[in-house]
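User: Hi! I'm working on a homework problem where we have to compare a predicted structure to a textbook description. Could you give me the structure for the chain below?
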Amino acid sequence: MTTISEKSTSVSIHDTDKVYTFIEYFYHWENTKPDAVYLKQPDGGSWTDYTWKEVGSQARRIAAMIKEMNLPAQSRIALFSKNCAHWVICDIAIKMSGHVSVPFYPNLTSDQLSQLLEHSESKLLFVGKLDSMDAVEEGVPEGIRVVSFPICPGDKYEKWDDILQKYDPITDNPIPNMDDLESIVYTSGTTGVPKGVMKTYYTNAVGIKPTLKITHLDKIEGRFLSYLPLNHDAERAIVEGGSLINGGTIYFVESLDTFIDNLKEARPTIFFGVPRIWTKFQMGVLEKIDQKKLNLLFKIPIVSGLIKRSIRKNLGLNDLEMAFSGAAPISASTLDWFEKLGVSICEGYGMTENNAICTINPKNDTRIGTVGIPYPGCELKIDPETSEILAKAEWNMKGYYKNQELTDQVIKDGWLHTGDMGEIEDGYLKITGRVKDMFKTSKGEYIIPVPMERMFASNTLIEQVCVVGYGLPQPFALINLSDAAYHMEKGEVEERLKDTLEAVNNSVADYERINRVVITEDTWTVENGLMTPTLKVRRNVMDARYKVRMEEWYNEGENLIIWE
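Assistant: Happy to help. Predicted structure tokens:
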């Protein structure tokens, strides 16, 4: 078989209708630009560079070790680490060895880790950059071999560097069968037990061509910053997949404290951010210079350009050619704010079950308030009874691992039932809510919270909002304030929240009107269970935590703003 690594470097690897797997893209860059830097790992203010050749050498040695284990073909091999260079190298090695990559979120508890290792039937576990090794030491079932990355804390397990010294690299370029499983991706799960989404080499590869027709990732010099969990489908597709497609460079973030410094050094040309990240950027700017002053400066022709360029540079976003947002709804006001700054954010829509390839707003034809048009090859329709979005594409998942019953519920006649509600106008999709997020008030009326949450998000004092109220006469809005709000007078904060509340209530039906805004004391984080690893609010957890209090608040009189 002729692979893309054997093609002339003067011919674009994308100038063909053939579908190539991600590992074949890797072979190409390893062969054609071996000395170019592929991965950059930060370490206390300096960077360790890994060229395509070095990544290949390490991956091939790890693959040799895996092959020596004589595992059955397509055995599951687990990855448990925060983002780092060795995460990507390991993922490549698993593909080279003919097995299935099973990446986990790095914040799993020992019980969760044990459950997923047993469910996936993993034979080997790679562990790396973690806050603590307790989950590994307490959660790994007996009989599973454990290998630790150099960046891994502790000294208990077999070491990556020792393996590199022991094994010679494999020398061939194994090409997988398109129907083979490439990965099992466990969803973070805003509700219920995580599900293992099965992805084949074909479903991962076939979506590349239509993606390139809209994003043109192959035409952009690729500099990526990796910070969201790499097992999150959008991060993995845009950062790992995007870098393999265009031969770009991935910069990793060392920690939350170094995020902005790492971002400035990376100066990404392609950046994916969930809405909370974009909001954080915005609030960071507004803490230094208020919006009224910005508006005045933006009206001065020469000064306007200088100010906008300075802000983008200080954020590390001055070289951006493609900016993406996804995983949760982003407010129209946030998109508009960045557009005025000179950063066009392409909001898209997708899910693990369809490779995060469903719709996207074209860069030059964006419609704020929508998540864009379908990618070529993706069909959409709306269920007339439930308003649920149904999607059909060749890259839809193979199914849920060891759960045919649930697979049959989600995929019917080739259509993926997304669980999201929406409407299509002029070919553009608008998300209106989530089927499972709907709740009924004691008046018997159904509440769809997402549209109201989007309206609240226009207030820059609000960092997060969750509309709840199952079984109450009227819904509540739980609020997490931004840092800037706590530097203001309490009365001013309340007045601005009341203005927002009035605007929301004037835009909805009487039964949807928000009865109270509650400012919660706790910050909503992944660690306290109020958010998923991809920074989406766990609505069911919020509802359960505050259910009893809401009944009390409802009977407290006319106070519209409640400080918990």
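For your comparison, note the following. The two ends are 65 Å apart (CA to CA). Confidence is low (pLDDT under 50) at residues 6-11. Good luck with the assignment!
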